[in-house]
Automatic annotation (TrEMBL):
CDD domains: LuxR_C_like (cd06170), REC_NarL-like (cd17535). One of its GO terms (biological process) is phosphorelay signal transduction system. The modification 4-aspartylphosphate is found at D63. Residues 155-220 form the HTH luxR-type domain. Residues 12-128 form the Response regulatory domain. InterPro entries: CheY-like_superfamily (IPR011006), NreC/VraR/RcsB-like_REC (IPR058245), Sig_transdc_resp-reg_C-effctor (IPR016032), Sig_transdc_resp-reg_receiver (IPR001789), Tscrpt_reg_LuxR_C (IPR000792), WalR-like (IPR039420). The lineage of its organism: Bacteria, Bacillati, Actinomycetota, Actinomycetes, Kineosporiales. This is LuxR family two component transcriptional regulator. Keywords: DNA-binding, Phosphoprotein, Transcription, Transcription regulation. It comes from Quadrisphaera granulorum.
Length: 224
């Protein structure tokens, strides 16, 4: 059905939440506005994926913590399947880890469950037309996160086959430290350092410490 006074169809919405009272309440709230078409509901991520295939909504309001399949994984499935629906996460959690996990999975928006009717409707309409939706506080934190310079790579991340101690030694090798200097910096005996260096060379298949240091620098590890 078009919006009153226009020929534009109403945005079609699927509401996904494992709590029936909240799920049905949001669906009824949106339907009562007359400017949103609620095409269905789902109680978990698996149901959401199936319901999107059946109803082809423009927007999915998706909870995060759900049984069977959580909202982040369900969002990822929808994105991977090239479903056209825009996912807006609607959850109680405002922790950065949850926000960024949802965004990385492909969510187009993130709202807290305390959002009012006007904010929900605005979010649905924005997402339905291709926009991104984030509350003011969350938007500020996301801007700060993406504006921050990326952390320099570490040996542990670049070479996951190394132990924590081996990664520390490799970083010092990349800085041109001698075995004696490494031993002093890490409070190790010279013999222990020699053994660790040998293990690093073997795991990196490097012929000598110079080659190992070069491999570290090529991986972006900046000498301290």
């Amino acid at each position: 059905m078009p919006e009153p006074g226009t020929t534009r169809p109403l945005p079609r919405v699927l509401v996904v939440d494992d709590h029936p009272l909240f799920r049905d309440g949001v669906a009824a709230l949106l339907a009562s506005t007359g400017v949103v078409d609620v095409v269905g509901t789902a109680a978990d991520g698996e149901q959401a994926v199936a319901a999107v295939a059946e109803h082809d909504p423009d927007v999915v309001l998706m909870d995060v913590q759900m049984p069977v399949l959580d909202g982040v994984d369900a969002t990822r499935r929808l994105v991977d399947s090239r479903a056209r629906a825009a996912v807006v996460v609607l959850t109680m959690s405002e922790e950065d880890a949850t926000v960024f996990a949802a965004v990385r999975a492909g969510a187009r928006g993130y709202l807290l469950k305390g959002a009012g009717q006007e904010e929900l409707v605005a979010a649905v309409r924005t997402a339905a037309t291709g926009g991104a939706v984030f509350g003011a506080a969350l938007a500020g934190r996301m801007a700060a996160f993406f504006a921050a310079p990326p952390a320099p790579p570490t040996a542990a991340a670049a070479f996951p086959e190394l132990t924590a101690r081996e990664a520390e030694v490799l970083e010092l090798l990349a800085a041109g430290r001698t075995n004696a200097e490494i031993a002093q910096a890490l409070f190790l005996s010279p013999k222990t350092v020699r053994n660790v260096v040998s293990a690093v060379l073997a795991k990196l298949q490097a012929s000598d410490r110079t080659e190992a240091a070069a491999r570290a620098r090529e991986a972006g590890i900046t000498p301290a």
